[in-house]
Amino acid sequence: MMKSKLTLSGAAGNNGSYKWLALALVRALLVILCVMTAVFFLIRIVPGDPAKMILGEYSTPEALKNMHHTLGLDLSLWDQFTRFVKLLFTQGDTGNSIIAGTSSRELIAERAPVTLLLIIIASGLAIITALLLATVAATHKDKLLDHLIRIIPAVTLGMPVFWVGILFILFFSVRLGWFPVGGIGEGWSGTLHSLVLPAVTIAFTDSYAGPLAACANAGGA
Questions:
Q1: What is the 3-class SS of the chain, one letter each residue?
Q2: 135-206-184 Cα angle (round to 5)
Q3: Which of 29, 62, 68, 177 fits as disulfide partner to 73, beta carbons 3.0 to 4.6 Å?
Q4: Are 221 and 197 spatial neighbours (Cβ–Cβ below 8 Å)?
Q5: What is the pTM of this model?
Q6: How buried is residue 146: exposed, middle or buried, by Cβ count under 10 Å (0-12/13-18/19+)?
């Protein structure tokens, strides 16, 4: 009897987890669709002609007309949107970059590995920092260090990541010269060296470190 109850309880828990995961995926998909739609129409509101940007200020009306047809800008706004969504979900086509003059999908694929590596490094630093802070707080419960560590999440979350990044660049890159101001170095060592400062910035601000430390400390309590 007890075994059957445990089985039913476990099955209910699994169903609840699957339901939560399904709802999370649906919410994520809805957010992506909303953001994609908003960005698409907001870009159309911004003044400027992409065709003129490509061809130059002194392009002829005929050349502009041909470029509008090539880019699909001669279609109605709704037709442009449906065409964009269809190409995106059927062919994975995200369009072409006006500045780079190549497929934006290729640009994304080219930069994705470095972005993923940055996320991994920043998350690792945040988790390690959170565990260290939580350990210190737990070993100094209700003492000065514990109270200071409890303040960290409020302080770090209130700091804009771009502002902290600028301060770090000015101090560690410009003044001390420890890290490059921007760009990616050559080889694995150069890449990792270039990502240290951005990863520390993300781990310090958006972190994850402060909230994780608070959660870990609360869990230990």
A1: CHHHHHHHHHHHHHHHHHHHHHHHHHHHHHHHHHHHHHHHHHHHHCCCCHHHHHHCCCCCHHHHHHHHHHHCCCCCHHHHHHHHHHHHHHHCCCCECCCCCCEHHHHHHHHHHHHHHHHHHHHHHHHHHHHHHHHHHHHCCCCHHHHHHHHHHHHHHCCCHHHHHHHHHHHHHHHCCCCCCCCCCCHHHHHHHHHHHHHHHHHHCCCCHHHHHHHHHHHHC
A2: 110
A3: 68
A4: no
A5: 0.60
A6: middle
